[in-house]
Structure formats: C-alpha cells, structure tokens
C-alpha cells in the first residue's frame, strides 16, 4: 500500500481535516444524537436543554465541539488502517475467498474488447499472484505494481514513491494531494456509515417504541456505506492514474536528483532501477558498476541534462 503523501501545506491540511474528517464526524454524531433523542423523546430532550442555564449551555457546547475535534483527530490516525481493511488485508482464509471472486471478475473481461482491456489495466494488477480480495484493493494494487513490472520499468513503487514525491513539481503534487483527499474522504464516510449502521441495528434490539426508526436508519446507513465504498473505488482509480503518470513523467528526475546518469535505453533503465533498489535495500548491488554518478551534470537543472550518446552505457 502507498505511504501517505508528505509535505502538505497548512491550508491543504485544514481543508483535508475539515472536509475529510471533521464534517463526516459531525454527521455521524448528529445521527447518533438523533437516534437517542428519538428514543428518549424530542420533547423531553428539548425541555432538558431549556432548563439549563446559559453557562452550562456554553460549557456543554464547548465540550461537544472539543470532543468532536478530538474524535476527528483520532479518526485521522485510523485512516491508514481503514484503507488497508477496505483493500482486503484480512485473515488468510477470508482473503483467499475474496481473491477467487476477483479472479472470476477478471476472467469475465474480454481482452480483445477495448473497454474490458482498459478495465484490466486500471482495476487489476498485471499478475494474478498479486490480486487482492476487493475491487478497491485491486485498483490500488494495479497502480502500485505498475512501475515495478519487470516488463515496464522495474521500479518498486512503494519504495520509490516518497522519494519521487519530493522531486515532483508542485503542480503534480497538488494533483496527487487532491486525489488522495477524495480517496481518504470516501474511505472515512464508508467506515463511519458502516459503524452507524451497526450501532443502529444493535440499538433496535433495546428500544421500546422506535425500533422501526432504528432499523430504517441502519438500512439507510448501510446503503450510504456501500455507495461511499463505490466512490472510493472510483477515487482510487483516479489516484492510481496519477501515480502511474508521475512515474512515467518524473522517474528520470528522481534518478538525476540521486546523481545517477540517465539511462540510454529502457533495457538499461530496468537494470539501473534494479541495481539502485538492491543497493538501498541490502546495501550491495549485484552489478555495482551500473551505479555511476553523472558528475557532468552537477550544478545544472536535472531536467536540462542531455541524453547520453547511444551505446554509452547506463
């Protein structure tokens, strides 16, 4: 799974927090309050509130606001875990069943049909061995394995993504941040809706006169959770397309920023990415002679360096 993008601006953090965490949390707790108030009686709840003095109303409102922010902060730390859960990082017996189902979906796509061919490319990894148990997980895995394909670049996306992000222009990073914001927001809404549905379903068994109201709220929340999940799948596809594009367009900038010579061919590039990965992972590459620094380009803009002459080596 991709690491969360770094180096976000303060304004973006505020927007992501309010839109992606605070607002869904507010709706969630407002729904819980509506269920409880409906069971206790809106008249009784209104009478209790009107009986409070001004100071207690202010303190209660302030406490609720602080509690909501605290809940949103805690929720922010759960987003990676929720994302992994939707991806399908489950117990092996359950994961295997999901993978078999995804393999059947993949098998029903006609590789000769243009639309089905694109779906295979965007919604599934290139190898069946890398399939995940869910649609959401396969869409993200397809983007994650794209640059690491040995028939493409051979660059491990999970390992190189934080490094690539640091050298990308701000315009590219902004597009990635926006796509990630939409993805995280859909994940949060889906998770909170599912939690609300379970809470309402359990509450229906302990209510006196509003069991039907609780049950209806549970069904509505379950439908919203499913809709948000489908939205998350679409957002993951957009995010995955951007990740692919970032590697396609900016991977040579990453090599240049690390000081390596720009490869003269795709074959040499694959060998270079493998050597760099081995050196950084295990501190020793099988072919260390490929790790040659481009000393001629020191002090110049990496994007302005010339392609080496054909046959000049990696």
Structural write-up:
Residues 295-314 are annotated as: Disordered. The chain crosses the membrane at residues 21-38, 58-79, 186-206, 212-229. Keywords: Membrane, Transmembrane, Transmembrane helix. The two termini are 30 Å apart. It is elongated, with a radius of gyration of 25 Å. The chain is built from 10 helices and no strands. Helix content is 70%, strand content 0%. The protein has one domain (10-259). α1 packs parallel to α8. Residues 1-12 and 302-314 have low confidence and may be disordered. The protein is mainly alpha-helical.
Shape: elongated
Give start-end ranges of low-pLDDT stretches. Answer: 1-12, 302-314
What is the overall number of helices? 10
Radius of gyration: 25 Å
Class from secondary-structure proportions: mainly alpha
């Amino acid at each position: 799974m991709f690491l969360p993008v770094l180096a976000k601006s303060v304004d973006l953090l505020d927007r992501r927090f309010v839109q992606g965490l605070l607002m869904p949390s507010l709706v969630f707790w407002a729904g819980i309050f509506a269920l409880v108030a409906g069971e206790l009686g809106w008249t009784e709840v209104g009478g209790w509130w009107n009986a409070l003095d001004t100071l207690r109303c202010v303190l209660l409102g302030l406490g609720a606001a602080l509690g909501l922010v605290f809940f949103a902060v805690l929720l922010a730390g759960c987003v990676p875990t929720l994302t992994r859960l939707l991806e399908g990082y489950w117990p092996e017996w359950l994961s295997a069943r999901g993978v078999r189902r995804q393999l059947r979906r993949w098998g029903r796509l006609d590789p000769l049909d243009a639309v089905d061919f694109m779906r295979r490319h965007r919604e599934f990894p290139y190898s069946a061995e890398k399939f995940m148990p869910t649609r959401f997980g396969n869409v993200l895995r397809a983007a994650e394995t794209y640059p690491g394909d040995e028939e493409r670049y051979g660059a491990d996306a999970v390992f190189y993504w934080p490094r690539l992000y640091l050298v990308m222009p701000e315009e590219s990073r902004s597009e990635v941040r926006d796509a990630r914001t939409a993805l995280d927001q859909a994940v949060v809404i889906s998770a909170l809706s599912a939690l609300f549905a379970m809470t309402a379903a359990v509450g229906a068994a302990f209510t006196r006169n509003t069991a039907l109201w609780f049950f209806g709220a549970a069904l509505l929340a379950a439908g919203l959770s499913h809709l948000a999940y489908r939205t998350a799948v679409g957002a993951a596809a957009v995010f995955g397309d951007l990740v692919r594009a970032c590697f396609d367009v900016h991977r040579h900038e990453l090599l240049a920023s690390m000081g390596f010579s720009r490869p003269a061919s795709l074959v040499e590039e694959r060998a270079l990415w493998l050597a760099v990965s081995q050196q950084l992972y295990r501190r020793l590459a099988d072919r260390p002679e490929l790790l040659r620094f481009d000393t001629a380009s020191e002090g110049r803009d990496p994007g302005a360096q010339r392609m080496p002459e054909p046959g000049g080596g990696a």
